[in-house]
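ok, trying the design again with the full structure, not the truncated one.
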């Protein structure tokens, strides 16, 4: 199988599940939001945390071995935000609108299944390490950017560290560092439940697309291109400076070209920070992934 056939085999199942979610949402219309509320809550509060924990606490996961990838994830996430800030000012965009989606890419509900399809089951743990790095940056730096200059109560650091995702990350890292391993039947059950979050997250992404409009297509198009290009520039720089294994290199390039996360739209909606513009960035960005993700995989799988 040549590399282009392999790339096509990797991305088609992902967009197929997203398309099924979108089609189902169009059929159900008004009822879908109430139906998905409980599903999304279970996914974010139970399934996804178990996915992260099982990946970090697995016997074959080493925090030391993945430390270079975690560093790459932090650099790409923070670096993309630093590049986006002056660019937003130059283009006349509100930084609180444009910068957070550039920081937080879709390394969860798109990146994790793509990594498994591209690199096999062994690719999940490194992908979770990258997802963990970008999540820590976004939920600390990204949220604070949105809150900058706003009145009212700010989110506390304690709330961030006690969220299910962060608790799962902290406990998983502790298990990895201390070499603690759960009994195999128990671990297999937790892993099985956690892996159910992957198709559910993709399905939920398709459902969420129904609410996103093309109203602000100009900023959406700019953001859709800037996000993967800024990540790719930083990945090329890191590749030149650091020594990655072939698998790590592939994971880093895939991570660098992922589109803005749907959660950025949910956060903008919560803070009423021009959610229509953020929605356009997310929607067009995920459509543009059909171009950028194959290119990133081509770079990483060479």
């Amino acid at each position: 199988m040549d590399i282009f056939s392999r790339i096509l085999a990797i991305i088609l199942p992902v967009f197929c599940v997203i398309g099924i979610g979108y089609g189902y949402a169009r059929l159900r219309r008004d009822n879908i939001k109430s139906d998905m509320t409980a599903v999304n809550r279970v996914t974010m509060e139970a399934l996804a945390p178990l996915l992260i924990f099982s990946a970090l606490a697995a016997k074959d996961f080493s925090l030391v071995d993945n430390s270079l990838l975690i560093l790459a994830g932090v650099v790409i996430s923070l670096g993309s935000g630093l590049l986006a800030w002056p660019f937003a000012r130059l283009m006349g965009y509100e930084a609180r609108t444009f910068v957070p989606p550039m920081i937080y890419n879709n390394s969860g509900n798109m990146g994790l299944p793509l990594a498994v399809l591209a690199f096999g089951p062994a690719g999940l743990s490194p992908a979770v390490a990258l997802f963990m790095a970008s999540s820590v940056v976004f939920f600390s730096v990204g949220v604070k950017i949105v809150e900058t200059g706003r009145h009212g109560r700010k989110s506390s650091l304690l709330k961030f560290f006690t969220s299910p995702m962060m608790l799962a990350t902290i406990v998983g890292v502790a298990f990895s560092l201390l070499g603690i391993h759960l009994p195999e039947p128990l671990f297999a059950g937790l892993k099985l439940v956690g892996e159910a979050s992957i198709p559910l997250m993709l399905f939920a992404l398709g459902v969420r697309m129904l609410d996103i409009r093309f109203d602000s297509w100009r900023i959406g198009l700019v953001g859709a291109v800037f996000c993967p290009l800024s990540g790719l520039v930083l990945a090329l720089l890191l590749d030149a400076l650091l020594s990655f294994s072939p698998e790590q290199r592939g994971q880093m390039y895939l991570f660098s070209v992922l589109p803005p996360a749907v959660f950025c739209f949910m956060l903008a909606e919560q803070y009423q920070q021009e959610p229509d513009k953020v929605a356009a960035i997310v929607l067009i960005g995920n459509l543009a992934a059909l171009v950028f993700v194959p290119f990133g995989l081509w770079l990483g799988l060479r």
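Keeping the full-length input from now on. The two ends are 13 Å apart (CA to CA).
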